[in-house]
Amino acid sequence: MWIIARVSGAALVVALVLVGCVPTTTPASTAPKPSATPVFATEAEALAAATEAYAAY
After folding, report:
1. φ and ψ at residue 14, rounded to 5 degrees
2. CB-based burial, 5-20: b 16+ in 10 Å, e otherwise
3. Is the distance from CB of 46 to CB of 39 less than 8 angstroms?
4. What pLDDT does 53 receive?
5. Measuring CA to CA, which residue among 17, 29, 44 is closest to residue 9?
6. Residue 38 — φ and ψ, nearest 5°?
7. Is the pTM for the entire model greater than 0.85?
8. End-to-end CA gap in the chain
9. Where are any strands of DSSP class E within 1-57?
């Protein structure tokens, strides 16, 4: 009788260990949508803003 109790106890422990190893599902990440309007009107304006930010750094 004690053999059945030990086997069922071992089976319970194995089942609990395996349940802990199951990976959880992660939500699918969605890519951000690009903006319709550019941030800077010209490349020169973007370069000036980048230079100013770099100088402030």
Report:
1. -60, -40
2. eeeeeeeeeeeeeeee
3. yes
4. 96
5. 17
6. -70, 155
7. no
8. 76
9. none
The confidence score (pLDDT) of residue 22 equals: 65
Name the one residue in this structure whose structure tokens are 């959880």.
24
What are the distances in angstroms from CA 51 to CA 40, 41, 42, 43, 55? 14, 16, 14, 12, 6
d(CA 49, CA 38): 14
Cα 6 to Cα 3, 17, 18, 30, distances in angstroms = 5, 16, 18, 49
Spatial separation of the C-alpha atoms in residues 9 and 32, rounded to whole Å: 50
